[in-house]
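Standup notes
- DV: blocked on the single-chain target, sequence here:
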Amino acid sequence: MNDRPDLELERAIEAEIRAQLGALPRAGATIDPSAVARALDPEWPRRLMASVREVARAMAERGELLVTRHGKPVTEWPWRGVVRLRAAPAGGAPAEDPPITAPGA
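- DV (later): unblocked, structure below
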C-alpha cells in the first residue's frame, strides 16, 4: 500500500507549508503541521495529518525545511510526539542543536 499523498494534494500541502513558513515574522520561527492541515481542510483537518507529515518528511529530506521537537532537529521516522516545521537555514542545520534520534540508534 502506498501511503504517499496524490500529486495534486502533495503540491497543495507543499504550497501551504511554503506559504506559512514565508509568512513567519522572523527567521527560525516554526509552524505547526496541524495548521497546514487546518488551512487546507478546516472541517476535517485530521484526515490530512498523515499526508502533511509525509510531505514535510520529503521536504526535509530535500533540505527545504527542518522538523524539530523541543527546538532540536528530529531525524527519526516516524516522528514521535509534537513536531514543528522550520525553514531550513542556508548552509544546513545549526551545529549547536544536535539531532534527536530514535532510542538505540
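- Follow-up: The chain has three helices and four strands.
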